[in-house]
Amino acid sequence: MTLEELRLHLDTLDQRLLELIAERQATSREIARVKRATGHATRDYARERDVILAVRAGAAQRGVPADAAEAVMRVLIRSSLTTQEQASVAAQGAGSGQRALVIGGAGKIGGWFVQFLSSQGFNVEIADPAGGPGAISDWRRSALDHEFIVVATPLGATDGILRELAVRRPAGVVFDVGSLKTPLRGGLEALRAADVRVSSLHPMFGPSTELLSGRHVIFIDLGARDALQRARALFAPTMAEQVVMGLEEHDRLIAYVLGLSHAVNIRLFHRTGAQRRGRTAPAADVEHDLRRAVRHRQRSGAGKSGTVFRNPAAQRLRH
Predict the structure, then answer these.
(1) Is the same domain home to 117 and 184?
(2) Which domain holds residue 302?
(3) Residue 100 has pLDDT above 90, yes or no
């Protein structure tokens, strides 16, 4: 065969692969339906292990690198899980006939919530100065007659918006998605004082996230039980791990996590510099520093709390 003929043959094989992937995705949607009907969990780690072991064995028999075959299969498994999770969210239709307002919905994390709520059947309204299809530029023009109001604005603007919402006293559930909560304390307390159903969330993932398996969503308990339960119910159809904690505990935890990240970056920076000068800083030094920081945190009593995890088998965030 000529080079051109061989390339055409590869193109044909690629199309066949795409057809098989499409068929696999369709089967995944059917599996999601059966799992919902029978009460099975979306993710089955034992099944994933069996599939990967079988793929590695089959690859060896066909002269295909086992690691390459496993990498491809893991991508397909992740795609399948994403399909199943999205099908589960859509099927439950928690927002059918209900309305939601996302203030800051043209932003990255705001856009994520717009898509997430829309997938549940909510009629989502966007309020954002950046505009967008169907968006209003100023949330103050809204009647605020929504079942959910999500404040997904920059941290510096969020507290003021929460305080203004407290004056308007909307009937729906209000929650922010800020990564720090202490700067928002005044606005959150104003909403509680106005008897607004308020909660506070911190999604521990980026706006490009599609599959929530292995991801955490932190819910701040502000004393409004109904608001907390309704906010958590939004994520019930997903595989996200739900964490409930107080405001102070949340910010201590985030400061600790950010501190560890900063320590690792500094250590890696010095290690890189040492390597450039011809010296080698062992990777174990990084682990040593992290363990020392953890032991210090344990001795100081930090992190002791009543954190609640929806999945009791989930690994705790704290240690």
Answers:
(1) yes
(2) 249-309
(3) yes
